[in-house]
Amino acid sequence: MEIDTFLLLRQEISLLAIALLLLIVEIFISENKKSLVIPLVIFLFGVHTLLGFLPMEDGSLFGDMFRTNGMIHFFKNILNLGVLIVMLQAADWVKEKIVAQHRGTEFFILLFSSLLGIYFMVSSGDFLMFYLGLELSTLPLASLAAFEIFKMKSSEAGIKLILSSALASGISLFGISLLYATSGSIYFADIMGSITGNDLTILGMVLFFAGLAFKISLVPFHFWTADVYEGAPISIASYLSVISKGAAVFILMILLFTVLKPLMQYWENMIYALAILTMFIGNLFALRQQNMKRFLAFSSIAQAGFILLGLITGTQLGTATVVYFVLIYIFSNLAAFGVVQSISLQTGKENMKDYEGLYRTNPKLSLVMMLGLFSLAGIPPVAGFFGKFFLFTAAASKGYYLLVFLAVVNVTIALYYYLLVIRAMFLRTSEEAIPFFKNKIFMRLGLIITVVGILLLGVYSPVYDYIYALSATFN
Amino acid sequence: MDILSLFIIVPLLTVLALLFANDLKRARIIAMIGSILQLAMSVNLLFAYFKERAVNDDIMVFTRDLVWFKDFNIHYSVGVDGISVALLLLTSLVVLAGVFISWKMKELPKEFFISLIILSTGVYGFFISLDLFTMFVFFEIAVIPMFLLIGIWGSGPREYAAMKLTLMLMGASAILLVGILGIYFNSAADGGALTFNILEIAKVNIPVEAQKLFFPLTFIGFAVIGALFPFHTWSPDGHASAPTAVSMLHAGVLMKLGGYGVFRVAMYLLPEGTLHWSWFFIVLAAFGVIYGAFAAIRQTDLKYINAYSSVSHLGLVLFALLMLNKTAWNGAILQSLSHGFMTALFFALIGMIYGRTHTRDVTKLGGLLKVIPFISATYVIAGLASLGLPGFSGFVAEMNIFVGAFEHAELPYRIATIFAISAIVVTAVYILRVVGIMLMGPVKNESFLAMEKVTWYEKTGILLMLLPIIGIGVAPLWLSEMILKSIQPFIQGVL
User: Fold this and answer.
1) What is the dihedral of CA B358, B363, B367, B371, to 10 degrees?
2) Considering the entire predicted model, what is its pTM?
3) In angstroms, rounded to a whole number, what is the distance separating the alpha carbons of residues B332 and B86?
4) C-beta of residue A178 within 8 angstroms of C-beta of residue A204
C-alpha cells in the first residue's frame, strides 16, 4: 500500500493525533495549568477543521471497507464545523465546572473519540466498518452524557442512553446479519448487486433501519431523547442533536439511496409513515414543554421528521436538500443551544419562564436566540427557510403533495411554540428577568459563527449549488 | 442599480442606519428620511412608468432578472406594471404617514421603526417580484414583524392577538407554499424547464386536473391575508390590539397582498382552476361583504368597527376579482387603493382620538367635532369615502365593481351581486351612526374640553392619506386607464 493512499484517512489521522496528543498533555501538564488545555484543544481542532477544507481525492482503503469521496469529505467538514462550535460553546463550562474535577482533557478526548467513530461510520464501505463506527460514536457519548457525575439527572441520562442505544444497535446488528444471510456479503457494493425484495431481506432492512432511526430519534424510537437531553450537559445535548443526528441521517441516506435502492418501494412507505408520525408527535409534545432543553429535544425530533421528506425521494435532489438542511440545522440548533447554555451557565436557569423580559436586559443574546428559532421555524430570510423550502420541493418533485401539506401544517404548529419563546423574551417584561451579563470570548465566538451561518447560508446560493454538484456522487 | 431594486435596498439601508439610533429623536428622523426617500422613489417610478409605457408594450417593465438558485431555476426577478406601481405608491404613502403617526413612540423606538421598515420591505418586494419563490419570501418577511409589532407595542389582549394573527397568516402562507410547489412542478407541462417565473408559467398550459387541485390552495393561501370569510378572524383582533401605525400599515397595505396575489398568481396562472372554483369563492366573498358590514354595526369599539368594515370592503375586492371581467377587475384594484388610504386614515384618526380620550368606546364619546374639529371633520370625510359618496375614491371603485358584476346575466351571479350591493346600505348605517354619536351632539365628558389640539406631525400624516382619497375621487381617469392597460394581458390569460 502506498503511503499517499493513507492521505485518504487524513481527517481520521489528524483527529486521532489530537486525541493522543491530549493524552500526553494530560500527563505532563502541571495541575494548576490544566485550564490552558482548553484554548490548546480549540486551536488544534480549529486547525484540523481548516485543513479539512483542503481538497481530497476519491478512493477507498482496506479492501473497500473504508471509502471517501467529495460528498463524504464535505460532510465530515460540516461535522467538524459543528463540533468546533460545540466546543467553543462548551469551553467556559468545561473551564468552570469540569477542570476543577480534573477531567477537562478527558471531556475532549471522549468527544473526539465519538467524532472519530462518526467519521468511520460515514466513510464505511461495508457493514462491519459501519457497525464499528456506530459503536465508537455512541459509547463515549454515554459517558459524556453522564459527565456531570454529581447530578442525578446526568447519570440517569448516561444510563438511559447506553441501555437504549445498546438495544438499538443490537437490533440493527440483527438486521445486518439478516441482510448478510440473504446476500452473502457485508460489502455495500456486493449487496447492492444481489439484493432482492424477499421477505427476509425486507425484515433485515427494517431492523437495520430501526437502529439508525434510534440515533436520528424518529418516532417511535424517540423515547430516550427528551430525558437524555435534559439530563446531559448542554454541550452534549447539542452534540447529540446536531452532530450525531446529522451523521446518522447522512449514512442512512447513503445506504437507502445506494445499497437499499432496489427496495425503494418498501422503504418509501416506511419513511412516509414515520415522517408523519415524527413530525406530529415531535411537534405536539414540544407544545407544552417548559424546560428549554426538553423543548429543544422535541423540536429536534420534529426537525428529523422534516428531514425524512428529503430522504423519501431517493434522488440527487433529495441528497442535496438533505445535506443542505443538515448543514443549516447545525447552525440554527447550535445558536439556540448556545444561548440556553450561556444562560444556564451564568444563572443556572433553564425554564422558559426565566426567559421573560430577556430582551430588555440582554438584547444581543435574545436576538441570537430569535434568529436561531426563526431559522428552525423556517422563516425567511434566514437560512432555515431555504433548507425547509428545498426539502419540501424535493418531496413535491416525487408528487408527495399530501405529505408536503402535512409538513406545512406541522411548520405552523412548530411556529407556535417557537413563538412562545420569542414571546417570553420580547413581549413580556419581568421583575426577575435575567440580569445583564457578558459572555466570555469563546462562547461569543461560538454564537457569532452560528449567526453568520444562519444569515448567509440561505441567501448566498453558491453553498447550495456546491452541495448539489457534490451530490451527483450518489444515485 | 435598477430603479426597482432600490425599493429593497433603501429600506434595508434605513434599517441598518436605525441600528445605530439610540433614542427616539434619532430613530424617528432616520425612519422619516428613509420613508420620504421611498415616497420619492415611488413618485419617480410613477412618472418613469408613464414614460416607459409610451414606448414599451411588455406586460412588465423595468424588469431585471438575476439567477439565484440555478438548480431550482429560482431567480431574483423584478418588474412592474401599472397595478404594482399604484400599490407601491400606496405603500410608501402609508408608511410615511405611519412614521408621522408614531412620532411619539416612547417604548423601544428603535426596534419599533426597524420592524415597521422591515415590514414595508417585505411589501415592496412582494409587489415587484415576478418570481414565485422571491414573492413568497417577501410575503413571509412582510408578515412576521407583525408578531413583534402587535406583541410589544400593542394594547389589550396583545399577546393573544399577535399569536393568532401570525399563526393564521403563516399557516395560510404554508398552504400557499404547497400551491406554489404544485404550480412549479407543472410549469414544465409543455416540455420546457421548471420555472418559478410568473410570466413564463402563464404561457404554459398547466393540466386542468392540476389546476383544479392547486387553485384552492393558492387562492386560500393569499385570500386569508385578504380577510376572506371565514378566515378573517385574525383581522379584527389583530387590528384592535395593534398600535396605530401598525393598524394603518396592516389594513392599508398588508391586506392588499391578498388581492394582489390572488390576481397575479392564483387566477393568472391557474385560469381553468379559477373557472372551476369561482362560484364557491364568490359565495364566500359575497357572504364576507355582508357579514363584515353587519358585524361592524354591532361593535362599539372604534377599531373593531373599522376592522370589520375592512373585512367587508376587502371581501368586495375578492368578489370583484372573481367576476372575471375588465370593469370589475379595474374596480377591485381601485378598491384596494381606495380602501388602503381610507382605512389607514381611519386608523390614524382613531389613534389620535384614543390618545386624547383614552377610550375607543363609541358610547363614551360625544361632541368631538366641537373640541377637535380637524380630526373630526377628517373622520367625516373618511366615512363618506368609505360609504361610497361620489367625489371620493370609494365611489369610483364600487361603481366599477358593481357595473362589472352586473355584466354577468346568470341568475346566481345576479343574486350574489345584489347581496353584495346591499352591503352599501349597511355601510352607511355603521358609518353614520358613529359619526352621529361620536362627533355630533353635546360634549359628553368635561375632560374633553381640555384636549390637546392636533399637532403638525398628525396633520401631515392625515393629509398624506386624505389627498389621495380626494384625488382619486375627483380625477380617477388617469389611474383607471393605467390599471386597465395593465389588466389587458391578464384578462386575456384568464378568459
Assistant:
1) 0
2) 0.93
3) 13
4) yes
What is the C-alpha separation between B468 and B476, in angstroms, rounded? 10
Instruction: Check: CB of residue A231 under 8 Å from CB of residue A145.
Output: yes
Helices (H), A184-291: 188-194, 199-216, 223-231, 234-238, 245-254, 264-286
Which of 205-224 (B) contact A at CB < 8 A?
213
Q: Which of B118, B127, B319 is nearest to B227 (CA)?
A: B319
Asked whether the beta carbons of A56 and A452 are under 8 A apart, the reply is no
B3-41 pLDDT, tens digit each: 888 888 888 998 888 888 888 888 888 888 988 999 998
C-alpha cell at B84: 404594482
pLDDT digits (tens, 9 = 90+) for A388-412: 999 999 999 888 999 999 999 999 9
In the numeric block, which cell numbers belong to residue A358?
430577556
User: Which residue of B75, B135, B160, B181 is the best one to mutate when testing the A interface, meaning the one whose CB has the most A CBs within 10 A?
Assistant: B181
Which segment of A412-416, B206-210, B395-399, B487-491 scores lowest on mean pLDDT?
B487-491
For residue B166, which residues of chain A lie inside 8 Å, CB to CB?
415, 419
Pick from B441, B330, B447, B342: nearest CA to B387:
B342
Omega into A381 within 30° of 0, i.e. cis? yes
Q: Which residue has the cell 420591505?
A: B121
Report the pLDDT value the prediction gives residue B494, as an integer from 0 to 100: 65
Contact B140 A461 (CB under 8 A): no
Q: What pLDDT digit, counting tens, does each position of B133-177 carry?
A: 999 999 999 999 999 999 888 888 888 999 999 999 999 999 999
With pLDDT > 90 as the criterion, what percentage of chain B qualifies?
14
Q: Residue A321 in 3-state DSSP?
A: helix
Give residue-wise pLDDT tens across range B228-263. 888 888 888 888 888 888 888 888 888 889 889 998
Q: Among residues 6-65 of chain B, which lie with CB inside 8 Å of chain A?
A: none
Is position B1 within any domain?
Answer: no
Rounded to an integer, the average pLDDT of A439-465 is: 90
Domain range for B361 is: 6-494
CA distance A69 to A434: 48
pLDDT at A196: 82
How many domains in chain B?
1
Domain boundaries, chain A: 4-473
Instruction: Give the whole-angstrom CA distance, residue B232 versus residue B310.
Output: 10
Of the candidates A391, A387, A390, A364, the residue with the CA atom closest to the CA atom of residue A376: A387
Q: Which ranges of B129-197 would DSSP assign to H, the alpha helix?
A: 132-143, 145-153, 158-185
Q: What are phi and psi of B61, to 5 degrees?
A: -120, 170
Nearest to B182 among A401, A412, A468 (CB): A401
Going by C-beta distance under 8 Å and a sequence separation of 6 or more, which residues neighbour residue A64?
A: A125, A126, A187, A189
* Cross-strand partners of A351: A291
Contact B151, A427 (CB under 8 A): yes
Cα–Cα distance, A384 to A218 (Å, whole number): 20
CA within 13 Å, CB half, B171: 16
Question: What pLDDT sits at residue B208?
Answer: 87
CA nearest B392: which of B337, B469, B467, B466? Answer: B469
- The pLDDT tens digits of the residues spanning B333-382 come to 988 988 888 888 889 888 888 888 888 888 888 777 778 888 888 888 88
> Smallest Cα–Cα separation from B479: which of B90, B57, B124?
B90
Q: Which residues of B touch A392 (CB under 8 A)?
A: 177, 181
Q: Is B137 on the interface with A (CB under 8 A)?
A: yes
Q: Report the chain A residue with the minimal C-alpha distance to residue B178.
A: A405
Beta-ladder partners of B64: B78
DSSP β-ladder status, B61-69 and A66-68? unpaired
From residue B76, alpha-carbon distances to A328, B119, B138, B264 in Å are 22, 19, 11, 17
Task: Return d(Cα B282, Cα B39) in angstroms, integer.
Answer: 35
